[in-house]
Amino acid sequence: MSRMSVPVKIEKGRHIVSCMSAIPSFKNSLPALSDVTVAIDDLEGALRQAMGGGPLQTAVMHEREAVLDNLLSQLVNYAEIVANGEESVLLAAGLQVKKKTPRPPRQFAAKTGHKEGEATLQTVRIRGAGYVWQKCCATDHTEIPASDWEQFAITTLSTVHISELSSGAKYWFRVATVTSAGQGPWSDPISLIIAR
């Protein structure tokens, strides 16, 4: 809400206080809804003064705005604690719920190392797991026979460094996770052209 204009912030603040006042679980909110209302009223008065005033009145308005921003931020945090993940409670409290677009999990990444012929590979860390790493030098991974994949490391870390790769060559890498249940499937191969 800190990016809202002052008039919109005043209106939104009043809406939130009105909605929360109707919900019993927000009766003893921190900060108190009455304190938030006082801050809204103070800001509204300061806005009127600033519209016809000079730099001093504008500075006072910004000070009142900062007070309200702080109280509204505390109130939103309190509402999130009371809601305990229930979106309906936040909506009933007059708050907007931002939909989170789930980011697809990063499975596997590769980058060239700092020295010629080096690369660093990283996969998702799984507690208590080990990792089997393989490489293959080829132009296209769809035509790589299983026998051409070469195991170059077994680690307990989800990051591995490899050296002595041919500069300018295109390598394909893959990794499999090993847990107490055994070795999992191979990751989709990723390619990397080794820097000269």
Number of strands: 8
Largest sheet entry: 5 strands, antiparallel
Kindly give the count of domains. Answer: 2
**Straight-line distance between termini:** 50 Å
Order of helices and strands: HHHHEEEEEEEE
The whole-number mean of residue pLDDT values reads: 87
- Number of contiguous helices: 4
Percent of residues in beta strands: 15-25%
Structural class: alpha+beta
Structural features, described:
The protein has 196 residues and is an alpha+beta fold. The protein is 36% helix and 22% strand. Helix 1 (6-21) packs antiparallel against helix 2 and helix 2 runs antiparallel to helix 3 (55-83). The protein is elongated, with a radius of gyration of 29 Å.
How is this structure best summarized?
It is built from 4 helices and 8 strands; from the N terminus they run ααααββββββββ. It is an alpha+beta fold and 196 residues long.
Q: What is the fold's blueprint, element by element?
A:
Elements: H1 6-21, H2 33-52, H3 55-83, H4 87-92, E1 108-112, E2 119-123, E3 130-137, E4 150-155, E5 159-162, E6 170-179, E7 182-183, E8 190-193
Helix pairs in contact: 1-2, 2-3
